[in-house]
Specification:
- The structure is a single chain.
- This protein has helices at about 1-15, 15-30, 35-50, 110-130, 150-155, 215-230, 230-235, 275-295, 315-325, 345-350, 380-400; strands at about 55-60, 60-70, 80-85, 135-140, 170-180, 185, 190, 195-200, 205, 240-250, 255-260, 260-270, 295-305, 310, 330-335, 355-360.
- The protein is an alpha/beta fold.
- Helix 4 (about 110-130) crosses helix 11 (about 380-400).
């Protein structure tokens, strides 16, 4: 395996300029969730050029390629799926770079351009060494990670990974808080479920100078927001990670006008499905009870989002061990639980899965902006590791 390790490392360096071209092309032409038509066409062109067969139009714009190993001295032929997401975010890019987004109000601020470029790079490496492994590598280019219901869910519901069915699924995600040259793993529970909470408080609006004649919807909304924090502080089990946050309040009144309607939007996240269901009922009951008690009505809508992401402990430990042969062991870090969410969770609920982090930050170069910001960027040296590591993990699992 040492010869193959050196070969994969060498090829990741050899195709570095191509990886940068792919990533920068995608960065300049971002498309929002389930609108990745040009992105999918670009991916298909690259796969065609590599002679890799694929199915397209899955869940709208998804593509799944297939590389079949030709080595025959293996009794069990495994199937390993490698996943990358393709969609961008509705953010106006502020970076002044040659590859700045050309699509107004759209930006690859979550690194999905890196994921797609890395998977295309891994595909090229694996296609060039397919005589060195048995089994199959599935290349999953997935749409719509950033928007409920999630492209992963739609792909699975469409049976896109039923035939052939993978023995395990591997995904990677950029991590700007980690320095380039490092990667991170966590066995077991890793990322939270996520539900979207929408509350609409309605009452009799009117002049702010005559509160006795109206229903103060703004005050009621404030009471509801404060009271709902008890969901976390007094109802959640202290050992169960739970977050309830509200990030948007719409109150179209004025300095002397109380509006007849106030809208509140937020997110609920946890790592326990039984508690998740109970908590959503509590959110509705508390919000509506307060509103009714203060003379208003409260409409509650909670959109069921992604489940929690759990990394298979055996697969993830193996992946971490493989990674420590690809990188210096000290560059392979242990990760903490995160309350962010990822639709890769759907794969992790159905298959043995490993979702790991790719360090992309570089403090010395001033590359420190976090995900989902208008100044997010990466140290492109990470592309070598992103492509090479995905290829190495696939090869290692197929030959383990």
């Amino acid at each position: 395996m040492d010869d193959i390790l050196a070969l994969i490392k060498g090829k990741s360096i050899e195709i570095f300029n191509e990886l940068k071209f792919i990533r920068q092309h995608l960065h300049k032409h971002p498309e929002l969730s389930f609108e990745e038509h040009e992105t999918a066409a670009f991916v298909a062109q690259r796969l065609d050029a590599m002679g890799i067969s694929y199915k397209s139009g899955l869940a709208g714009t998804g593509i799944i390629g297939s590389i079949i190993g030709t080595k025959e001295n293996c009794e069990k032929k495994r199937i390993v799926a490698l996943r990358a997401d393709m969609d961008a975010l509705p953010i106006v890019e502020e970076n002044q770079i040659d590859y700045k987004s050309l699509n107004a109000g759209k930006m690859h601020a979550c690194g999905h351009d890196v994921h797609t470029a890395s998977l295309l790079g891994a595909a090229k490496i694996l296609a060039s060494i397919k005589d060195q492994f048995s089994g199959t590598v599935l290349l999953v280019f997935q749409p719509g990670e950033e928007r409920i219901p999630g492209g992963a869910k739609l792909l699975l519901e469409a049976g896109a990974l039923d035939n052939p069915k993978p023995d395990l699924v591997i995904g990677q995600h950029v991590m700007p808080s980690m320095e380039v040259g490092t990667i991170g793993f966590r066995e077991g529970l890793y990322m939270a479920s996520s539900d979207e909470v929408f509350l609409t408080i309605r009452g009799k609006g009117g002049h702010a100078a005559m509160p006795h004649d109206i229903t103060d919807t703004v005050l009621i909304a404030s009471h509801i927001i404060v009271a709902l924090q008890q969901i976390v502080s007094r109802n959640a089990n202290a050992s169960t990670p739970t977050v309830l946050s509200f990030g948007k309040i719409i109150s179209n009144g004025a300095v002397n006008v109380i509006p007849s309607e106030v809208r509140i939007e937020g997110t609920f996240r946890t790592m326990d499905e039984e508690w998740r269901a109970k908590a959503k009922l509590k959110i509705a009951n508390i919000a509506q009870s307060i509103a009714h008690g203060m003379g208003a009505e409260c409409e509650v809508e909670i959109r069921h989002g992604y489940p929690f992401l759990v990394n298979n402990e055996t697969i993830t430990q193996q992946a971490k061990d493989f990674a420590k042969t690809y990188l210096p062991p000290e560059n392979v870090e242990d990760m903490s639980i995160r309350m962010t969410a990822e639709d890769f969770a759907y794969y992790s609920q159905k298959f043995p899965a490993c979702f790991f982090r790719l360090g992309t930050g570089n403090k010395s170069k001033g590359i420190t902006s976090q995900l989902h910001t208008s100044t997010f960027d990466i140290d492109e040296e990470a592309l070598k590791i992103g492509a090479g590591m995905m290829a190495w993990l696939a090869y290692s699992f197929l030959n383990d």
